Automatic annotation (TrEMBL):
GO cellular component, one term: ribosome
Entry annotated with the keyword Ribonucleoprotein: yes
Species of origin: Peptococcus simiae
Reaction(s) catalysed (UniProt annotation): N-terminal L-alanyl-[ribosomal protein bS18] + acetyl-CoA = N-terminal N(alpha)-acetyl-L-alanyl-[ribosomal protein bS18] + CoA + H(+)
Sequence similarity: Belongs to the acetyltransferase family. RimI subfamily.
Chief location: cytoplasm
PROSITE patterns: GNAT
Pfam hit, one: Acetyltransf_1
Keywords from the named record: Acyltransferase, Cytoplasm, Ribonucleoprotein, Ribosomal protein, Transferase
UniProt-listed InterPro entries: AcTrfase_RimI/Ard1 (IPR006464), Acyl_CoA_acyltransferase (IPR016181), GNAT_dom (IPR000182), MshD_Acetyltransferase (IPR050276)
Protein name: [Ribosomal protein bS18]-alanine N-acetyltransferase
Amino acid sequence: MIEVRPCTFADLPALIRVEQETFAHPWTKESLHTALSARETHLALLAAEEGQVFAYALFQYLLDEGELWRLASLPAQQNRGLGQRLLETGLDALQAKGVHRVFLEVAADNGPAIHLYEKLAFERIAVRPNYYGQTDGYIYRWEG
Ligand SMILES: CC(C)(COP(=O)(O)OP(=O)(O)OC[C@H]1O[C@@H](n2cnc3c(N)ncnc32)[C@H](O)[C@@H]1OP(=O)(O)O)[C@@H](O)C(=O)NCCC(=O)NCCS
């Protein structure tokens, strides 16, 4: 059964593996360690099954605003609902902390991610032309 829980430092190697298998420009262990250390302003959640980490999400927040910094599922585990569970759990947890607006930025050609964000009521509010080389960046906002 899939469990969703906060990330700990012990999860760092597994999170790095997700980063490396998922992103062309993965975060380093140091960047992730820094984020996990700043607990008052960061929320990191992972989805695991039988001790195996399959996906994770990292939010940064301050006062009533937050930002989704990372969301990734291992390629073999995508389209199983993990991304949606992480995002919904994270938004609920942030709302409980008084966060009522969450922003994110996504490449215009990232169909699966855009589909997921729009399904969860994120609204596209701006376009950054050629933010990713030839590809535009979209800014999305969620209000809870
Ligand atoms: C975006 C991402 C995190 C989604 O994670 P996931 O665990 O596959 O998400 P879910 O299984 O919850 O899928 C959510 C929705 O996206 C859709 N989706 C997932 N993979 C898809 C794909 N390859 N093509 C089209 N739609 C897809 C699902 O169908 C689902 O919608 P539905 O329930 O209406 O069918 C994952 O694709 C990923 O890790 N991508 C690479 C990293 C990335 O781009 N992160 C986002 C950066 S902004």
